[in-house]
Structure formats: structure tokens, C-alpha cells
Amino acid sequence: MKQTNVMPATGKLGIMVVGCGAVTTTFMTGVFMARKGLAKPVGSMTQFDKIRVGKGEDKKYLSYYDIVPLTKLDDIEFATWDVYPQNAYQAAMFAEVLKEKDIEPVRDELEKIKPMAAAFDSNYAKRLTGDNVMKDKTRWEMTEQLREDIRRFKKESGVERIVVIWAASTEIYVPYCKEVHGTLADLEKAMHDDNREKVAPSMCYAYAALSEGAPFIMGAPNTTVDIPAMWELAEKTKMPIAGKDFKTGQTLVKSGFAPIIGTRCLGLSGWFSTNILGNRDGLVLDEPENFRTKEVSKLSTLETILKADEQPDLYKDYYHKVRINYYPPRNDNKEGWDNIDIFGWMEYPMQVKINFLCRDSILAAPLLLDLCLLSDLAARAGRYGIQRFLSFYLKSPMHDFTKGEEPINNLYQQYTMLKNAIREMGGYEADEEID
User: Quick one: pLDDT at residue 1?
Assistant: First the structure.
């Protein structure tokens, strides 16, 4: 490893997850099983991917651990908040993502993880009815309680560093409001005033995490950290933020396949995406207000890859539709269909059909691991504010929309950003162009 200015990953890392459902319990079980040598963390780039460093005779392909000081799986401690009081073992069994034989070997570890009371407002997720929630608290009081939770976990577990990641349900859509979300002072006033319409519970988690010196990652499409007030707080506390919405199935395919169409200079008439899922995420998204948040996130991918203003002959008027359907029999086994109408030489039409039978939590779990380890790395490297190099993992990458910045959604460009950031933090040259 080269000499770098990145602080070493000494001691233990506390990963505090908002939500103790299918995704979280699959993530935690997989980490525990991998530590015992009983499972492999497949899908995690920090554990498997290799990056080229150097050129010519100096060229080497190294794992992330050989380039930068990442936290080892053995040094992770978990905590969660959830509206349901069941411990992580009970929640994993209820989720029915993993087979009992893959949960039982780490039952003791999972049973020790009991969710803390959630900062929750039923207006933001009407389909959830759990009672393990903070009672009669204003938004500011919720935030103060969360800060106390973080401090207590740090003290009791003996961890040196904390990362907070949201793996809970999608909240209803909260549009950006400059008067509330424009500055940190405005947001703090709204929290003190208990403005429940403009301050989502997720904002309380983000505020608490950043204020306690912990990076925050938004894994749902919630507005949470995608506001100037939170960017200001991240700058003030010198903490990394990342988001939003884990890119697991259909959007992963979209961000990888759309560049094929664009690179090959084929035209696009329409792209219709629909999927079915039956877990708690599907239940919440069955509520139109919650689906609206997800729809905005999923629709944003295509428009920044296939640009009408750059190629009007090819992408001027294509029709893009996204649908999610709650279908209980499938539980966590999501199925996505994409119908893509393209055209080629002399504008003759063609079609592409993609049917992705995926497992939502199996795809999401390694993203949580990578995002937490890399956000912790960024913090130790002195990187703060929006972490654009983590766009690879996210459906709707954060960007400064107040200055007209566009997010990068092209999967291959995102991968280049990721590799360059790892190289830089490892003391190597960031030597790939993003174009």
C-alpha cells in the first residue's frame, strides 16, 4: 500500500441501520456468516473487485484492501432502529429471504441486535403499523433522541467510528422547499417549530448522524439529504453524505443497457419498465404518495444518459414509463420486465425485452456493505459533502441541482469515478477519463 493521508481503520466500525427488515437482516446475516467462513459476500465490490493502478511496466491489479485502508468484516458492530420491536433474528426469519439453515449458525449474534425506537411519522408510511416508535416528540426532540442513541451505542459497543445508513421504507414525496430546505438555519427552525409537512423523519436521522460525526447514506429515494441545508451541515461537520436509493435490479440494468443504445447510436422510441414485489417495501410502495417518491428516482436515470439535446434525431420524443406493483406471493423475489422500443438504420423499428427475476435483498445487501465501508473510508480521507464517486451504487445520484449540475447515471462512467476515487485515496494517480 502506498503512503497516503487517509487515517487508518483502527478499532471497530459501528454500522447503524435505519430499518431492521429484509434488506438489513440479509446484510447483517451475510456479514456474520462470512466472518465464520460459512458464506461468501458475493456482489460486494470492496470484497471481490480489483482495480488497475499504474500503467505500462508499473501496472498492477489490486483489491480495494490492497489500495486503501478499509475496515475488515471482523471489525464491524451493528445497531438498528425499527418501528417493529423484533430482534434481528426474528426479523430475518419473518422476512423469509434467507433459508433457516443460513440464519441459524449466527442466531446468537442476530438475537443480540434489538431495534431502538424509531423516529417515525405514520403520515410518511401509512402502511406501517409498528409500535416501537418515539412517542409524542417534535422533530427536534426526535433528532436529539437519535443523537443520544448514537452516543450510547458508541459508548456501550466501544466502536471508534459510526456510519448511519437508511434501509427503511420509502417515505412520501417531499418536494424541495427553499424556505425550509435552503439553509441549515431554516431547516433547524422548521425542526424546532415541528414542521411535520416539510421535515421528514429521515431528515432527523441524517441531521443526528452528521452532528455526531457519522457519515450518512440514504438508501431510499427520500428527499432527506438532497437539500442545500444538509449539504451545509455536511460541510460544517466535515462529514460525507451519499444517496439516494440503492440501485439493485431494474435500474442497474437500465444504467448498463442504455449506454449500449447510446454508444451504438441507435434511436429510442420508448422504454416501459414494470415490476412486481411482495415484501414490506412493496406494501409501502402500494401507497400512491410513496410510489411517487420512487417514480421520480427511477425515471431520472434514462434522461441523463440518452440526451435529446445532444442527439435530437435519436432521443427527442421517447416515452418513458415506470410502474411497481405490489404482489404478495413473490415476497422478496422481485421480477422486473423492460420493454424497449428502439430503431436503427432508416428508422426501422426493433425491440429488446429484459426479464430480470431478482432477489431484492440479495442484491441490496452487498451495496450496504460497500457504501458503509467506502463512506467510512471517505471520512478518514477527509472527504466531506456529496460523495459523487458512490453514484455507481445509487439510482438517483445526488448532485447540486441549484447550480444546474446533472448527475452521472451511465454505469460505466460511474465505475470510472469509483475507481479514480479509490486510486486517489490510495495515493495513486486517478488516470481514467470520464467521458
Answer: 63
Report the phi/psi class of residue 294: left, alpha or beta, with left for phi > 0 and alpha for psi in -120 to 50.
alpha
Residue 257's nearest CA partner among 410, 415, 433 is 410
The CA distance from 132 to 201, in Å, is: 15
Pair 210, 387: CB distance under 8 Å = no
How many secondary structure helices (H) and strands (E) does the chain include?
Answer: 16, 13
Cβ contacts of 309 within 8 Å, gap of 6 or more: none
pLDDT in tens, 20-37: 999 999 999 999 999 999
In DSSP terms, 50 is beta-bridged to: 63
Tell me the residue type at 270.
G
- Cα gap 374→393, rounded to integer Å: 11
Does residue 349 contact residue 341 with C-beta atoms inside 8 Å?
A: yes
The number of beta carbons lying within 10 Å of the beta carbon of residue 320 is 16
Alpha carbon distance, N-terminus to C-terminus of the chain: 29
Nearest of 126, 123, 145, 167 to residue 16 by alpha carbon: 167
Please identify which residue in the block is written with the cell numbers 453524505.
241
C-alpha cell at 59: 501496472
| CB-based contacts of 382, cutoff 8 Å, min separation 6 | 5, 238
The answer to whether 133 and 82 are in contact (CB under 8 A) is no
Pick the closest to residue 220 from 125, 139, 336, 359 (CA basis). Answer: 125
Q: Which segments of 83-239 are extended strands (E)?
A: 116-117, 161-166, 216-218
CA distances from 116 to 2, 71, 412 (A): 41, 25, 39
Dihedral of alpha carbons 147, 395, 249, 392, sign: negative
In sequence order, the β-bridge partners of residue 277 are: 326
Q: How far apart are CA 143 and CA 260, in angstroms?
A: 45
Residue carrying the nine cell digits 489490486: 62
pLDDT, tens digit (0-9, with 9 covering 90-100), for 301-322: 899 999 999 999 999 999 999 9
Name the residue among 361, 169, 396, 357 with its Cα closest to residue 281: 169
Asked if residue 369 lies in contact with residue 417, where contact means CB atoms within 8 angstroms, the answer is no
Enumerate the β-bridge partners of residue 15: 78, 163
Distance between CA 194 and CA 138 in Å, rounded? 5
How many CB atoms within 10 Å of residue 309? Answer: 7
Output the pTM of the full model.
Answer: 0.95
Closest CA to 96 of 319, 395, 361: 361
**CA R_g for the chain:** 21
